[in-house]
């Protein structure tokens, strides 16, 4: 089992994604501060961003853009281990 494989996805407002991973870890990925350029440029449009789906454990969009699931996993994991 690959721990960082995305198993569930919910698109939230404000360029955020609520995801769960194969090992049960879940959280919210905030992409609102990202620069959407190149293949990611269409993601700047919130309506297009909302078309995210899961393909083979990776969050993808109709234009072929994708977000590295291991990087998303690390972001959620670090948020869970940040002292309050």
Tell me what the structure shows.
It is built from two helices and six strands; from the N terminus they run βββαβββα. With about 80 residues, the chain is of the alpha+beta class. It has one domain: NE0471-like N-terminal domain (NE0471 N-terminal domain-like). The strands form two sheets. The chain has a three-stranded antiparallel sheet with strand order 1-2-3, covered by helices on one side. Strands 4-5-6 form a three-stranded antiparallel sheet. The mean pLDDT is about 95.
Key structural traits:
three-stranded antiparallel β-sheet; NE0471 N-terminal domain-like; alpha+beta; 84 residues
Largest sheet: 3 strands, antiparallel
Structural class: alpha+beta
What is the 3D shape?
A: globular
CATH topology: NE0471 N-terminal domain-like
Report the CATH C-level class: Alpha Beta
Query: Strand order of the main beta sheet, please?
Result: 1-2-3
Low-confidence stretches: none
CATH superfamily: NE0471-like N-terminal domain
Helical amount: 10-25%
- Report, as a whole number of angstroms, the end-to-end distance: 31 Å
Could you outline the blueprint of secondary structure elements for this entry?
Layout: E1 6-12, E2 16-21, E3 26-30, H1 46-49, E4 53-55, E5 58-60, E6 66-67, H2 69-80
Antiparallel strand pairs: 1-2, 2-3, 4-5, 5-6
Short overview:
The chain is an alpha+beta fold and 84 residues long. It is built from 2 helices and 6 strands.
